[in-house]
């Protein structure tokens, strides 16, 4: 990576301002977050709709309606039902690795375009499904779309934004996720009331709307200067785009950094092999640890299965969907707040605040359900509202910490030569752990019962300590100069510093 290059302003900042082109480009790219969030919200909602369950999962429907002996926590325990939800994430895991060479060789735009097109096909198949096989095949296509979009969109936003705006702009992706979840919950609430029991088809098919926006946007968006330099030996085109998106002709300092980073990246034949080298160890650890921790916050208890969870504590079909709307609204609002303050407070501060907030609420919910929710019956209305309020506080904690920062931090820490591979690992790990949680949650809920909240609470404690001790602050650092944050960190400088010493020794021997 390029370090120590001339910078056009104080504090390690490049020249430029927030232009309309950058703002519109990042807003369009953040639609990739909307398709991801929409799917999260829709899948949880339709699996709580009785006509949907009756058509595709009749055993679950019968167990829910007629089996009076089964525990509240076990009514929805079905591997076929969880396969419907989790099949998307296996497809996303595989496609995120396929997306890496496309993103690296052809640019960020083609990957975004492929993601939008695949999601369009998946939404059409899901809405028209007549059997469970069509349903799951549609989910697989959605997974391909999400895999490509999640791999390329955060990179696109990080490369387009100025360092001082990068946090807020990148959180636009998570804002899109929140808006997608909220929109899905509102649509589910409306379609559940359609007479005839076919409202779930509308819920699944409407995923085509954000996918269309993303696909059209991918055609109209400019490519990032980083990608243009990486894939074009002539830097003039990249300079022209850089001048347009920065709103100034004085972009030489940033262009020099991009060219230097690109020249290093072109010496890398196999980025996946290179990323395991010791000098990239901090980035590799973060690429695995951050998506893992993001999933074991327990947020999937809410986003996938919020309506099912609320039905578990005794709410009706309509009330459970309305509760999911409330939590979605809280999460979206908190994400917007995060976007406003992340470049002022920094990443670590928000991580710590959110971690403490999630830990306290999860333990409290676990205690309430352990004491009051037995295997049969339900919570009283007052306690059900209390659980809903605590879940809202928990969702807010996630939405201004691990939700957006789980995407932001990995997208900004990789040098250009391993950036596409690093992002693919991050996205793939996210899909892998999401699949594991999605596939096992209903079985865990049946066996752990209220203890599920203590399980996730323990992980929140671990991840908060991890951030405090091992994650350096990346706020306001130019993306092409991120190497210095590891060299200055109390722990990682031991590894990176030793590599530097090895390089010096090798150079002296060669001399």
TrEMBL record:
A Pfam family it matches? Sugar_tr
Is Transmembrane set as a keyword in this record?
A: yes
List the residue ranges forming a coiled coil, or say none.
none
* Annotated keywords: Membrane, Sugar transport, Symport, Transmembrane, Transmembrane helix, Transport
Molecular function GO labels: monosaccharide transmembrane transporter activity; symporter activity
GO cellular component terms? Answer: membrane
Q: Does the keyword Transmembrane helix apply?
A: yes
**Stretches assigned to the Major facilitator superfamily (MFS) profile domain:** 25-475
Q: Which InterPro entries match?
A: MFS_dom, MFS_STP/MST-like_plant, MFS_sugar_transport-like, MFS_trans_sf, STP/PLT_plant, Sugar/inositol_transpt, Sugar_transporter_CS
The way this protein sits in the membrane is described as: Multi-pass membrane protein
Give its localization.
Answer: Membrane
Membrane-traversing stretches:
18-38, 80-99, 111-130, 136-157, 169-190, 202-221, 284-308, 320-342, 349-371, 383-403, 424-445, 451-471
Gene3D superfamilies this protein is in?
MFS general substrate transporter like domains
Which family does the similarity line name? Belongs to the major facilitator superfamily. Sugar transporter (TC 2.A.1.1) family.
Task: Please state what the protein is called.
Answer: Major facilitator superfamily (MFS) profile domain-containing protein
């Amino acid at each position: 990576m390029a370090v120590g290059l001339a910078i056009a302003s104080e504090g390690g900042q490049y020249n430029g301002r927030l232009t309309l082109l950058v703002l519109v480009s990042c807003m369009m790219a953040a639609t990739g977050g909307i398709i991801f969030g929409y799917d999260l919200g829709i899948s949880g909602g339709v699996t709580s709709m009785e006509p949907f369950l009756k058509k595709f999962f009749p055993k679950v429907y019968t167990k829910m309606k007629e089996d009076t002996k089964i525990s509240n926590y076990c009514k929805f325990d079905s591997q076929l039902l969880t396969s419907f939800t989790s099949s998307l994430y296996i497809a996303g895991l595989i496609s995120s690795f396929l997306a890496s060479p496309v993103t690296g060789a052809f640019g960020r735009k083609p990957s975004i375009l492929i993601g939008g097109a695949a999601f369009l096909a998946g939404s059409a198949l899901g809405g028209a499904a007549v059997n469970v096989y069509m349903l799951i095949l549609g989910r697989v296509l959605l997974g391909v779309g999400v895999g490509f979009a999640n791999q390329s969109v955060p990179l696109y936003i990080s490369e387009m934004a100025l360092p001082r705006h990068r946090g807020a702009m990148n959180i636009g992706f998570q804002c899109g996720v929140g808006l997608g979840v909220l929109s899905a919950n509102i649509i589910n609430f409306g379609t559940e009331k359609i007479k005839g029991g076919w409202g779930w088809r509308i819920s699944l098919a409407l995923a085509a709307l954000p996918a269309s926006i993303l696909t059209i946007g991918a055609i109209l968006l400019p490519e990032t200067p980083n990608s243009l330099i990486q894939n074009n030996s002539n830097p003039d085109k990249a300079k022209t785009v850089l001048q347009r998106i920065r709103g100034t002709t004085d972009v030489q300092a940033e262009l020099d950094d991009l060219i230097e980073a690109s020249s290093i990246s072109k010496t890398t034949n196999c980025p996946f092999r290179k990323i395991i080298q010791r000098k990239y160890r901090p980035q590799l650890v973060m690429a695995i640890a951050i998506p893992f921790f993001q999933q074991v916050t327990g947020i999937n208890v809410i986003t996938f299965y919020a309506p099912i969870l609320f039905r578990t504590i005794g709410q009706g079909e309509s009330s459970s969907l309305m509760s999911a709307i409330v939590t979605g609204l809280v999460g979206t609002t908190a994400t917007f707040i995060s976007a406003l303050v992340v470049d002022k407070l920094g990443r670590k501060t928000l991580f710590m605040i959110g971690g403490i907030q999630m830990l306290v609420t999860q333990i409290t919910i676990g205690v309430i359900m352990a004491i009051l929710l037995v295997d049969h019956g339900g919570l009283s209305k007052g306690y059900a509202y209390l659980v809903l309020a605590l879940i809202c506080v928990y969702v807010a904690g996630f939405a201004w910490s691990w939700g957006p920062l789980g995407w932001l931090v990995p997208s900004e820490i990789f040098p250009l030569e391993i950036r596409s591979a690093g992002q693919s690992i991050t996205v793939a790990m996210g899909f892998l752990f999401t699949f594991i949680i999605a596939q096992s949650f209903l079985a865990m809920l049946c066996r752990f019962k209220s203890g599920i909240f203590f399980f996730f609470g323990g992980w929140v404690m671990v991840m908060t300590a991890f951030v405090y001790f091992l994650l350096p602050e990346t706020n306001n650092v130019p993306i092409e100069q991120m190497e210095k944050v590891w060299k200055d960190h109390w722990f990682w400088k031991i590894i990176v510093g030793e590599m530097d010493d090895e390089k010096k020794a090798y150079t002296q021997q060669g001399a």
